[in-house]
Amino acid sequence: MDITKSNICDCLSFAFNGLKKSKLNLEKISEDTKAAINRMADFYRISENETILLVIAIEAHYSSDNTLNIVGFKEIRETIDCDAMKVIPYKNQILSLIEKHFFFRNYTLDDNLNFRINDQVLEALCRGSFAGITDVGEDFNDRYAFIRRFQNMYEERGSFTPSFKVHILSDMEDSFSNIDFVEKMKLLIPRIDERFVFYDCCGDFLQGTSSSLLATMNDIYSDIMAKRKAKAMADGNHFLIERDFLKVNKGESISDSRIDLTDKAKEILLGEDLCLYEKRFSARDMIEPEKINEVKLFYSSENRKQVDTLADYLSPAHFRSIQDSLKAKGMKIGFSVLLHGAPGTGKTETVYQIAKKTGRRIVKVDVSKAKSCWFGESEKQVKDIFDRYKSVCKRAVDAGESIPILLFNEADAIFSKRKDVSMGNVAQTENAIQNIILDEMESLEGILIATTNLTDNFDSAFERRFLYKIRFDFPTDEARFAIWENRICSLPVASLNSLSKHELSGGQIDNIVRKATMNEILTGEVPCLEKLEELCSEEKISDSSTGSRIGFCTCA
Q1: Quick one: which of 76, 382, 402, 430 is 20 to 30 A from 411 by CA?
Q2: How far apart are the first and last CA of the chain?
Q3: How crowded is the C-beta side of 304, counted as CA atoms within 13 Å?
Q4: Nearest by Cα to 50 from 90, 1, 10, 85
């Protein structure tokens, strides 16, 4: 047979038969077999020993009953029908062909080098030409493939001992050494067991969930060591916490606690794909300052001074420099503000007007939506709110924009006193939500404003965390006069004085003015003092025994 003129498949067959006849004793192979091996080596541009291993592996691939086409030492030995000691020296050739992506490593419970052959190697035989490995496929081409293979390594193929998991992870990192992410993590996290924990959390993150603290530790450590490592991480005394790779969301106990990637870790893992995984607020929850109508508000002299001071602090001209100065002094840089007082006294509108004045967007939190009926989901939703807010703030800072205000409006239910856990799961859930908010407020670097009508049931732990607390009382007669004058400028002074005697909040006055306006549109009658006085009486909800009415005015 003229090896130089035969097609490549015949050449491979001739080389294999010669190797099998010699039982892998290279001293006994014929010159024609050597020529066939050399031609195969030239075809694939690999060494002679790599070619010998590849020829046998291709034959094993096609002759094996294994539907997964997995090849290992056992398949090679059986295919060539030789002693095991003849095959073992080819371990380096297997590793070399894995590194060159001729083979893809398959991780199994045993310690053998099992692999499958790259389809491009097999397709080259059919074409009769080989241009090199041009695309290594998803097995080795990116960090996501690495994380997927890492999870499959132990989650889909049985239970490994911790030491064996570390051993396999080391081999996997070697196989993916062409991926920058893998090499970077080896430098940033020197200990391989800690990289295991990090990769484990990366896998859960890519699947859209956080990781159980204790379960993750149990994945790589023995029982007692896992508990010690989990406690150290919960206490903040762990390398991955100290270096800002992971963060802990504490539960009622260590077994209830969860861990997640920090923003720094997400940037390392995702790179340019970070924006694809960021959860953003909807347009309904994100209020742009230019869409806020300017409203003139009337305060007491004390409230006016407090609100103006807060607006000055949050102005673009001052806010950044104030934060920088606080940070330089080792102080907390977040601004948390509580606006409390009777309903309708302008708390929420004050936030809107400050946002408009300072050019800040408002991230409005729907408290009822955050408190899910599903056990465990409420905590996730509240944590997710803060995570998304941090991302929004970071994007704003990177773009040179003002960071937004996180607004918890009518947050009475969230900031109330914590409940006795013996009251059941609902109490536990609400306490867990409050613990999350307390932790987030402690590390806040943005602006959080909460409004509430009730402070009698306010938890003291929250009270301490609010830097500014502004009480909004019912407007004085003087303030009500100004509000009426602003809303209905056509009224004479005597009518304004009369209307200002009604003890109404600014919100109630606005309701009355709206109803009077609707009546004017319907009947064409300009609101008179008598009709406005009637509406003032209707606006107040009196004891049912008085027979007072609530609702629209009666049209004349």
Answers
A1: 402
A2: 115
A3: 8
A4: 90
